[in-house]
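Review box. Two proteins, two foldings.
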Amino acid sequence: MRHRIDRTQPIRYEVDVIGRRRSCEHVILYGPPGAGKLTVARALAGGYGMRVVDNHLSVDPALRLFDFGTPEFADVVEQIRVTLLGAAARAGLDVVSTFVYAHLVDDDHLATLISASQDGGAHVTLVQLAPSLDALLLRVGAPSRAATSKITDPALLRRLLIDFDLRTPARSDDLVIDNTALPAAAAAQLIADHVGLVPVDAGRSPDRG
C-alpha cells in the first residue's frame, strides 16, 4: 500500500521520520579580545567538521543599526545568536561559537545561549582561551585585525580588562586553555579530546553523516 505525502506539511526528518532527534555538540569558546577564539574555532571546523558561529556574525549586523553597548544592540546580538544556535541544534549540526565573556555581567546572556542549544537537542561544552596579557596586547595589534570591527588598540584592551573581569571562567568546571604559545591546531585537539569529537579524516563528515 502506497502512502500519500501531504506536501502542505513540513517533513521533519530529525524527529518524525527517524523517530529521534540526532544529538550534536556545541562548543562555546570564550575569552578576551585577542585570545585567538576565531582562529581556534576555524581549526575545529577544519579538523572536526564543526560549523563556526563567530562573535562578529551577530555583532557586525547589530552595529549597522545601534551603537555598541546600547540595550538595542545587546537585544539584536542575542536574538541572532539564539536563532543560529537553536537552528543548528535542531538540524543536528556540530557548532563552535565564540564571544567575549565578562564574568557576572554576561551570565544571563550565556545562560540564554546555552538554553538555545540545549533546547534544540545539543550537548554544550564551555571552553575558555586564556593566553597571557602580553600575548593579548600583541595579538590585538596584528595587521589581520585592521580591516575588521575587532578591537585593535592595546590601550583600549587594557581599559576593558580593568573595567570588566574577562579572565575568570564562567563556570568552575569549564575547560581552560592557556594558548599563549599553543598553536591553534593543538588547542583544537585539546578541545576535541575533551568533548569527544572525531576528526573528519577518520570517516566523519561535517554533517555527522
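Next protein.
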Amino acid sequence: MTNWFRTSALHDRREARQEACLESTDLCIRELPFSGKLLLQARGHIDDIRQSVSDTTGQELPVRPNSCSPKTGTNSGITLLWLGPEKWLIILDPDKLCETRQQLQSELSAIPNLLSDVSDARTGFEVSGASARVLLAKVCALDLDAASFGAGHCAQSMLVRVPVLVHQVNDRPAFHIYVDRSMARYTWDWLSDAASEFISGESS
C-alpha cells in the first residue's frame, strides 16, 4: 500500500527557506500552511447561488469585483475570494474540505455549477509588515496603493512573469499570494531576493 505524505513546495531549498520565514522589524515573508481550496463556477440567479453558499459556509458570497468575504481576513476559518463573474475561490481548513464540498454540491444541485478541488494546485505565501506594500510594488503589476487596494480586496495579476492571486487580509498590512505550485520556488526566490534590501543579513 502506498503511503502518501504532503511536502512543501520549497522542499529542495535550504533549511531557512524551507521553513519559509524571512523576518525583520517591518517585513516577514513565509509560506502559508496547506489549506483546502475549492474553485466554484456557478451560473444562475445570483440570489440562489448566494443563499446556497451562505447556508454551507456561513459567509456571504462576494459579488463585487475584487472583493472577498469575510473582509477582515481568515479568522473565521473560511474565506471566499471573487475571481470573476460567476467564479470564486473558497479557502478553508483542509480537514473540512470533503464535508464542505459535499454540502455545497447538495446545496447547488439545482444550479448549473462546477466545483473543483484545487487544493494541491496552488501554494500560498504571506508578505506582511510595514514594508510589504513597497516590496510587492517592486515585483507586482497591481496598483497596491492603500487608497485603492486595502483589507478585503483581492485581484489576479502578474508577479514578475507569474500569474498570481493577491489578497490583502488585514491593515498591518498582510498579503496572501497564491501561485501555481509549479511556480512556487521561482516566486519564492523572487520575493526573497527583492526583500534582501529590507532584511539585514539575508542573502539570496
